[in-house]
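Project outcomes to date are best conveyed with an example. Our students and postdoctoral researchers have been running inverse folding experiments weekly, and each run begins with a structure described purely in tokens. The record below, which covers 316 residues, was selected by the lab manager from last quarter's runs and is presented without edits.
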């Protein structure tokens, strides 16, 4: 189940805001993550844990993946976050997000702790997934080991704001291109995360874009990670949800084309179609690799509930 959950839009909801915990339930995001980390001030953290448990247990999150972001393991808060939230609402929680992950042993700690709590509560062992956020150089260098550290891991997430700070990047605009750099300064980081995620059949998720009133700029940033293969992106405001849903779904024409390739290739490789391995579909030559690419696009379209607007007709 885990890695196949839709996560085109992952909505950040501060655990200290009762108003936003309530409002988020009515918004059409694929995933919500109730935050105990950077959106919650240190003095508000104990209260936020209680709000998050109550919201998970009493709220209506139907149709959404429910995640809680705990504090990172260099803080004093992490163990209490995990114990309070999972003991209090483990049956109503899909994943725990661990931020600023730096090494595989941090994921192993969370895995063991979740197992302990699941055993205590009689929940299915391994039922709660882990989302690992990569936010500094150490995390990126160790990302392969992190991705392999637990069967609970469902996603590797890029945390661009913390990452930019950690590598001394000379910009304050998260995820955006830089006028002094003739390329995308985030390309290597995104690709590195994507390779680690795909090696372990995990989803790759892009992080936040902070200029929440600029939907066009959000779309531009999202399009770049979607083009590489990322599965979704964080959204910080309701206006960003629709854009993310659209950008991380295939276009109608790409979806139709992918389904057409699958049907055509199935026909042409069959006895009735002449058992051909490489064949022309219109002006395009398709073969087994085309089928593999088409499977990816078709799967994304089907997961998004898209319908075909064309069909394949075998030649007479
Ligand atoms: C998100 O947590 C980020 O640091 O970008
Ligand atoms: Mg961060």
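After processing, the design step wrote out the following sequence:
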């Amino acid at each position: 189940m885990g890695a196949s959950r839709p996560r085109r839009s992952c909505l950040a909801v501060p655990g200290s805001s009762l108003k936003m915990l309530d409002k988020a339930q009515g918004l059409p995001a694929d995933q919500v993550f109730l935050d105990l980390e950077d959106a919650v001030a240190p003095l508000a953290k104990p209260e936020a844990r209680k709000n998050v448990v109550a919201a998970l247990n009493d709220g209506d999150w139907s149709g959404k993946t429910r995640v809680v972001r705990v504090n990172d393991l260099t803080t004093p808060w992490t163990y209490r976050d995990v114990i309070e939230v999972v003991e209090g609402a483990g049956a109503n929680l899909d994943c725990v997000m661990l931020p600023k992950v730096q090494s595989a042993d941090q994921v192993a700690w969370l895995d063991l702790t979740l197992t302990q709590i699941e055993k205590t509560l009689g929940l299915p062992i391994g039922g709660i997934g882990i989302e690992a956020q990569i936010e500094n150089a150490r995390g990126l260098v160790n990302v392969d080991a992190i991705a392999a550290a637990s069967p609970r891991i469902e996603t590797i997430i890029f945390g661009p704001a913390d990452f930019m700070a950690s590598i001394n990047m000379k910009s304050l605009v998260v995820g955006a291109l830089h006028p002094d750099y003739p390329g995308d300064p985030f390309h290597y980081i995104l690709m590195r995360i994507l390779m680690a995620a795909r090696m372990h059949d995990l989803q790759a998720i892009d992080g936040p874009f902070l200029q929440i009133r600029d939907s066009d700029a959000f779309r531009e940033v999202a399009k770049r990670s979607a083009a590489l293969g990322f599965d979704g992106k964080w959204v910080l405001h309701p206006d960003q949800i629709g854009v993310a849903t659209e950008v991380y779904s295939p276009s109608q024409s790409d979806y139709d084309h992918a389904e057409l390739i699958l049907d055509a290739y199935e026909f042409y490789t069959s006895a009735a179609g002449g058992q051909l391995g490489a064949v022309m579909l219109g002006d395009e030559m398709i073969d087994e690799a085309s089928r593999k690419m088409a499977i990816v696009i078709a799967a994304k379209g089907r997961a998004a509930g898209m319908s075909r607007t064309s069909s394949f007709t075998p030649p007479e």
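The first helix runs from residue 18 to 23. The beta strands are 9-14, 31-35, 65-69, 95-98, 129-134, 153-158, 203-206, 232-235, 279-281, 284-286. The training component of this project remains on track.
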